Structures are given as C-alpha cells and as structure tokens.
Sequence to fold (539 residues):
Amino acid sequence: MSEFLYLYRIGAEAQREAMGTPGHAEKSMKVWLAWMRELEQDGHLKSPGQPLELTGKVVGGKQRAVTDGPFVEVKDLVAGFTLIEARDLDEAVRLSVGCPILEGGGSVEVRPIRLVASM
Amino acid sequence: MIAQPVDLDEQLFRQESGRLVSALTRIFGVHNLALAEDVAQDAFVRALEVWNVRGRPDNPAAWLMTTAKNRALDVIRRERSARTFAPEVTRMLETEWTIAPVIDEAFAHHIIRDEQLRMMFSCCDPGLPEEVQVALVLNILCGFGAPQIASAFLSSRAAVEKRISRGKKALAASTRLFDLADAEFVARLSGVQRALYLLFNEGYHTASGEAAVRAELCGEAMRLAGLLLEHPPSATPATHALAALMYLHAARLPARTDAEGELHALGHQDRTKWDRALLAEGVALLERSATGTELTAWHLEAAIAAQHAGAASVEETDWDTIVALYDRLMRLAPSPVVALNRAIAIGERDGAGRGLEELESIVDVERLARYPFHRAAMAELELRRGDTTRAREHFAAALALARNASERRFFERRIERCGA
Fold:
C-alpha cells in the first residue's frame, strides 16, 4: 500500500453554494460523513485530514512578505485535505471519484507521498 | 397519587437525562460513561443559567439536546488527543470533516431509542445482582439520584451509592454497550423485563412515603416498557403482558391514595377515579399478549388486574375466575405474596372462614413476617366474621410493621373501625 494526499479544491462561490445555508451545510456534512465512512471501512483512510477556511495569510519568498490570501476570486482554492492508502495511483484516483467536492464543481488533486531515500 | 409540587425543570432534566446520556455514550463509548453524564449535567446547569435570565424556551427538550451536542463538540475537540471514544466513531471524531454530523446522528430519534435500549440491556447484565441492575436503570435511564432511589427502595443512601458505583464500574469495563443484534438478546430480555417489573412494583406498592416520586417510578417503568414494545424483537407476548399489567395497575393509582395522601385498599376505592384511558390501553395490551404459546406470570397477573378493572364493585367481581388465575399463578410462580392474594380472593369467594384457613396454611409464611399486609388481611377477614378483638390484634401487628406514614394512618383507621 502507498500513501496519497487528496487536496480538495473549490471556488469560493461554489463553496458558499454548498455550505451557505444551514440546510445545505447539514446535507453537505452528511454526504462527507458517508464518503469518509466508506474510505474507512475499506481501510483506505490513513488520516481524515481537515477542511480549511478559504482565507488566511500567505508568507512568501526570501523576504518573508506577508500578504492576504489566498484570494477569493481564485477558482481553485485548497478547501481541505485527506491522507489515504491505496495500492497505486490508479486506485487512488478511482477512489476519489466518490468525493462530494466534485458534486459542487470542485476538484480532487491526487498526489503520491514522495518517499525519500535514506541518507 | 397526590400531586406534590415537583420542580418542573427537575422533572424535565430527569426525563431527558437518560436520553442524553444514552446518545452521548454512543459517541464517547461506554468506557467514558462518566464523561457522558458530565456533559448531560453541564447542559442542565447551562439551561438553568440561561432559562433564569431569558425564560424557559418553547421546546426545552430540544434546547437541552442542542446544548448537549455543542458541549460534546467542545469536549471532543479538547480531549480527542488524550482519549479514545466509541470505537465505531472514533476516527470520524478526529476531523472537522465529520465530527458534527457524527454527533448529530447520535441524537436522531430512532438512534436515541436504540441507544436507550442498549443501555437498558447493558444495565441488566445477569452478572450483576438484581438490585444493582435496577439501581443502574433508575440512575442512568431515569435520571434518579441515589437519595431518591434510596427513599423508593427503603435503603440507605450509602448502600444505593455503592450499588450504582459497582454497576458503573462493570459498565465502564465493558468495551461497548449490549448489541441489539446479539445472540444473547432473548435471554437478556427476560432480565430487562424483570428489572422493569421490580421498578414498577417499587413505585406501585407503598414502600416509600414520597407519592410523587413513586408515581414517577411507575411512569418511568411504563416508558421503558414502551421502548421494548417499539422494538419488534423485544415486543414479545411477555413484554405485552408486562406492559398490560403496568397499565392496568397504574390506572388504579388515582384511587389508591386520596387528596390527603390516605391509602385506600382495592375494596374501598372510588372506582370512578380509575383512569379509563390507561385501563383501555391495558386491556388492549393484554389482548395483544395472547399470541404464541408462552404463558408468563405477567399474563396471569395482568389477567387478574383486568378482572378487577372490569368489575363495577367488589361484590360484582368474578372471584371464581380470579381464584382460578391465582391457582395457575401459584403453579407457575409460587410465592408467599401470591399465596396471600389467593387466600384473600378465596375469602371473597367462599367467605371469611375459608379465607382465614388459606391464610393460615401459606407455605413459607415466615417470609411474610415483616410484610404488614399479611396480618392486615387476617384482620379484615376476622372483622368480616365479627371477631373485632382478633381483628384489632392483627391490625395492631400490621401497624407495628408499617413502613411509612400513609401505611400507619391506614392501619390506624382500620383499628378505629374495630370499635372500642
């Protein structure tokens, strides 16, 4: 088994649509619960990770410049992450198709954890 | 029952306590039972603070549930790195992705019902003595504290506290609550029924002076029996018979004590005060208990209660049928108390002399030595056949055995009836 990171991305507009009202938020959270349970039951859930606020600060470059961001206009803000276990990248991709973020027009970036060699 | 002023909030908290603790235990795990109880308690404290300022909300039960959910959310976030919660949900509590819907789920109507059943079945572990089982049910599912349980069971507070803590230790040591799909379900069900029967009887019979608490005990036993009836595998003929028995007896509660708290024996009750709705429900439950081949003591006791319920007066009671039912009950579940009641019924059917003969020939009669109503029954029959001297002696003996003020007043009044 290998480990993969799911990076969930979505636009601020779509996020508001999904979570904007208590009814929507409740429904959305139930869908996430069902999906996480599925991953857990099949032994794929390494760490459920966390959802993220869409705003914060960005610290950049050698100057350590602090700016507001990420910017709300951006269409693919990182909305959260999950660490999963899968046989290979193909399986990790296949598992991601049930992710609720896709229903809201978002995307899942599937990234293998890079294994470093011993020094 | 006399309606003693019961604090509205206190009564509500008691009623909601079992539901909240059961739902919270589903999330925290039974090993964290004490934490579940703390969170429920916090919700009650918070309610008192807020309601005192803003007034009682329209739906106080829903308010309490929301508060308990929020409190659970805080506690889990604070303690998830140090504690493990219920194995079924512990991973889903690690993350903000799922923590809120998991908590929400535990408080869904049907889940709360199932969790209360699981808690009930866990409390009635046959490895625990019956008095521990009943104390646990009363404490965890009915929200009664040790002082109230002690007063209902005529035990010391310390003894009840010991029972509760022993029971909770056993519960907390188990990995999870009893599974309703467990193969042991049917075997465990009879223990649960038995505990509810004891609980009801404790409320119904005059063991404690506090009428309001006793009425609540009966009400709680009926509520929990109702939970068994809602769950098809536990809605057996025996459960229907048990519930029938409770309803038919509870229907008589309003006539059992009057406004002054005076006790009235069945023969002297104002039958117009019997609760017709409860009687009808009891009869309907008894009819539904008559399926299958299993005949339990509860079927017979309920059938006896139904005979009384259907009679307009003592004279119009079908004592033949009642004696026959007691005969069957003696074969199925003999006890000195059943023998006593059978003897009284024979006295009604065949006259005081025959009744006294039966009373005198009760096997194991020494087990009734501290039970005031044995001597009282002898007194009633002596009085009926005109021997006031003997009647007075027996009533005096019963008076000496009386367990509370209303029993004492009852026997004193009967002594007065014996004349000077």
